[in-house]
Design goal:
Blueprint (H helix, E strand, L loop, with lengths): L2 E7 L4 H4 L13 H13 L7 E4 L3 H12 L9 E2 L16 H9 L7 H20 L8 H16 L6 E6 L1 H11 L14 E6 L4 E8 L9
Parallel strand pairs: 1-4, 2-3, 2-4
Antiparallel strand pairs: 1-5, 5-6
């Protein structure tokens, strides 16, 4: 049994453009964000989807619906699932990412979010975020994976050989890559509208490709 999941990061939003933390906060897509989604739909045109899922946040839903409108599929609407939401940054939602990284990891000498991830990893960066949150509302790594796990069970329950569109978020996708991909692969953030393919079996998740704007040659339709 294997399920092919084509996971797409949502299109650019205003908070993405301004370099601000965006977890459960939900800014609208920019003009470029709508173009990101359209491009992804066209890039995926040779994949015959059986199912379509999306995070329940509006930027992901808008991206998913734009992909479907620009794809020959007969699927008209993606099914929202909160399991596939972005990480929740709690108190730091909406703050500039550089300020957030300095607040969380300044003692480590980091000044950007990317430096924080490079130094301590995605998993530890979540734990540090919750520890630094004065309200303790941010998700730590355990919280994040407990929320995400039921989403994978939903995917595993689909018929064998299903092909699935899934629209999600940057840190969520990077976290999956960090756990199941090649060492160091998740140090590069996925681009808005980029495609990552997962092959999900009852016991494992394999990364076929990551952070591509087009389907690599040889990927089966």
């Amino acid at each position: 049994m294997a399920i092919d999941v084509y996971m797409v990061r949502h299109g650019q939003t205003y908070l993405n453009e301004f370099g601000k933390m965006q977890g459960w906060s939900d800014a609208p897509l920019t003009d470029q964000g709508w173009k990101d989604a359209k491009r992804a739909g066209e890039a995926l045109s040779e994949i015959d989807f059986d199912f379509a899922f999306t995070s329940d946040l509006k930027r992901a839903i808008d991206t998913a619906q734009t992909i479907l409108r620009n794809h020959p599929t007969k699927i008209q609407k993606a099914t929202p699932n909160s399991a596939f939401r972005e990480s929740f940054f709690g108190y730091f939602e909406g703050l500039h990412s550089g300020f957030t990284a300095t607040t969380i990891g300044g003692a480590l000498g980091v000044k950007t979010w990317e430096q924080l991830i490079e130094q301590v990893g995605i998993e530890k960066s979540r734990d540090l975020t919750k520890a630094a949150d004065p309200f303790k509302r941010a998700e730590d790594n355990r919280d994040f994976w407990e929320r995400l796990a039921p989403g994978f069970e939903t995917l595993r329950s689909l018929p064998d050989q299903s092909k699935v569109l899934l629209v999600s978020h940057g840190m969520t996708i990077r976290s999956i890559i960090s756990k199941y991909g090649q060492p160091g692969q998740a140090l590069i953030a996925p681009q808005n509208g980029a495609i990552t393919k997962l092959v999900i079996t009852p016991t494992d998740i394999k990364v076929a490709f990551y952070n591509q704007l087009t389907i690599p040659q040889g990927d089966e339709a």
